[in-house]
Sequence to fold (456 residues):
Amino acid sequence: MKLFYGLVIHCKSIDDLRFLPNTALVVDHGKIVFIEENADVDKIQQQHQISAENVIVLKENEFLMPGMIDTHIHAPQYVNAGFGLDLPLLGWLNKYTFPTESRFSDLNFADEVYTRVVANTLSNGTTTAMYFATIHKESALLLGDIAHQIGQRAFVGKVSMDQNSPDYYIEEKSSAIKEIEDFIVTLQSKKYPNVQPVITPRFAITCSMDLMKNLSQLASKYDVNIQTHVSENPAECEVAVSLHEGCRDYVDIYAQANLLTAKTILAHGIYLSDKELEVLHKYRTSISHCPNSNCSIRSGMCDVRRLMTQGLHVGLGTDVSGGFSPSILDAMRFAITVSNLLSLSKSEDYKPLNYKDVFFMSTLGGAQALGIGDKIGNFEVGKDFDALVINLAQTDGNLELWLNESIENRLSKWIHLGDDRSISRVYVHGVEVKEGASNVLRVKRLGGKRKSTEIN
Fold:
């Protein structure tokens, strides 16, 4: 049992960001069992019989917040992060992405990349990640193993694609269906408490309708989440609809394939029509907003405020490597910038996203988008303790504090200026994991091998 005491910041909703001073929060077996604002820490320590070494008192310039959630990231594309941004989506896939992803039949290569991406995102405060892997079942299972070993909460998707793909990187339909079911059964059999499989048709261009319908049946059979892409690029939208006869629009493709559920998240959604938004709202399907990627490969700018006004849950995604940064802090900043740019062409009463909105999207909003808002995303009794300790007084970097700054301004400064150095502790299900993740990453960057002792 552990007791945390100090400033706590979390959201109850997008309109309810709370700053709780002198707050005591008790964690037992990874669950939050008690929380009280303006608490007598000594009294609570005695009541819960917590030993002194298990009391974490935050410093004056520290605060506790929920862990950040990346609702869309391509783990194999981590290799390409920071280059290959000279082409729009479809050309970018063929020149850079498919050749890189095809290499993940090599398990040694997969181990190297997946260890780094899990360790780095975790060190950057991503306690939960929704991962695309590749079409290779064994390396996708390896990604699940690594996430479990290093300590990240993860949804892992073996990609399915049976058409309009390179000869060296494509599946035959019946094989794709068998492989994804084997993947689900095998990963679930491992009984990892914080890692689960997710159905992952790449997108409507590379998946036949028959394949998508079979994937939908498997999602229902095994009660797993679904992830794919929608309306990222104008050319993509046009091609997708042309390939699926009898479908009215992009969203209708997935509706006819029975892929739209309350456990489905669609990445991007830049060019969705009002009718498509109505359909998504009907099925309670969510959107992952990936603003860095949308800007970097020039897909467009998504009006998140419009999506939220239509009642959709919207989380944030890094979309590595279309997005060049694995940090959700970067996604928060890009989301604000994109929203500000969109506001220039809107009416005066249009409200662009602000730091409070993106804080919500990176925590509780992301959890709701993934269908796990009842389990993580903020601090409530009964929820899992996924959390970050933020140190605003880091000795290097661009974050500077001044006397008499409000708590609100300091949170805004951290969102705009903070980085992994200001994230001093990371917890997933009550277990502190940042030091282990950082050690693994350090060893990998020095050319060493990952050992089981380095991730405990």
